[in-house]
Design a protein that fits this description.
- The chain is α+β, with helices and mostly antiparallel strands.
- It contains 9 helices and 9 strands.
- A hairpin with a 2-residue loop joins strand 6 and strand 7.
- It is elongated.
Length: about 300
């Protein structure tokens, strides 16, 4: 089945903060009532200043998430899940630090902490729900066998450079590097390169195709091991590259890929468990949404 589409990509003209509709009830979950004012606050907490760019379809999906959160909150409360004072303090401290660092905003007011604690309680409830989920060695091995292409490493190169400000300087340094040993290259890089890796003897690191600017990549990947390039001009200056080592394409072993596979499997299993649990709660709990009271035309997803 398909969902009904609204005008896609257009700036909405919905009055989400319409004062005449803020107190209208849009959701009841086992006796707890939520209004448009609650959903508007949820939107602002989730989206920030981007509300006016949201389409009716996007707002509808956010309302679905709002409903899910409130159902989970009620179930967590009825199951006796609670937050310790240490958990609350640690959460607020982490949030306040992030706000100051990333946005320069003031920490949340006391009047807002109840909403924050509700979200933290839902997170705790879900973490308890999935805490026993595991991925054993056989599942990891099976995933590896079925998805080997994901673990094929393409050709990579370890490259060093000497970066000069002018073509004249670069030509002079290149003359010094004729038949130079690796030790001599690194000495010159430390004393004459303007690159940020000069202190490391010019070692830039290991790269695969697509990670360097195109005009530099063509030169670097065309070199042989221990070969020094011609002078290459770019917007950064004048480069002289040394190809330190080539790493041929190879397939990671199960042991090398195991950690990332296990993480992916745990994420997949956790998402499936939460989705199944939510479906059960929606069927068994006493709740009702009144979408006609929303401040935008709700678009339902049929049988998704």
């Amino acid at each position: 089945h398909c969902r009904r589409q609204g005008p896609g990509g257009e700036t909405n003209a919905f009055k989400l903060d319409d004062p005449d509709k803020q107190e209208e009830i849009i959701l009841e979950v086992e006796g707890t009532i939520y209004t448009n004012a609650d959903f508007t606050k949820y939107l602002k907490d989730s989206i920030g200043d981007s509300l006016k760019s949201l389409t009716g379809a996007a707002l509808s999906r956010l309302f679905d998430e709002f409903v899910d959160e409130k159902i989970l909150l009620k179930r967590a409360q009825s199951d006796g899940v609670s937050l310790t004072e240490d958990e609350k303090a640690a959460y607020l401290a982490k949030l306040e630090s992030a706000l100051r660092t990333e946005t320069g905003e003031e920490p949340p007011l006391d009047s807002e902490t109840a909403t924050l604690y509700d979200r933290l309680l839902v997170q705790k409830y879900l973490s308890l729900l999935v805490k026993e989920i595991a991925a054993d060695d056989q599942e990891v091995a099976d995933y590896y066998e079925q998805h080997k292409s994901e673990f094929l490493q393409t050709e990579r190169v370890q490259v060093s450079q000497i970066l000069l400000a002018s073509e004249g300087q670069a030509s002079g340094v290149l003359d010094k590097l004729k038949n130079a040993s690796e030790e001599e290259f690194r000495r010159i890089a430390r004393t004459e390169s303007a690159g940020p890796e000069a202190s490391k003897g010019g070692v830039m690191g290991v790269f695969k195709a697509g990670q360097l600017p195109n005009e530099l990549e063509k030169v670097v990947f065309g070199l042989k091991e221990e070969e020094i390039s011609r002078v290459v001009e770019s917007t950064y200056g004048y480069h002289i590259f040394r190809l330190d080592k080539k790493f041929e394409p190879r397939l990671l072993t199960t042991e090398e890929a195991g950690s990332s596979i296990r993480t992916k499997l745990l994420e997949q299993k956790s998402e499936q468990a939460v989705s199944a649990h939510l479906a059960t709660l929606r069927r068994t709990m006493d709740w009702k949404s009144t979408t006609e009271n929303l401040t935008f035309p709700y678009q339902r997803i049929e049988n998704e």
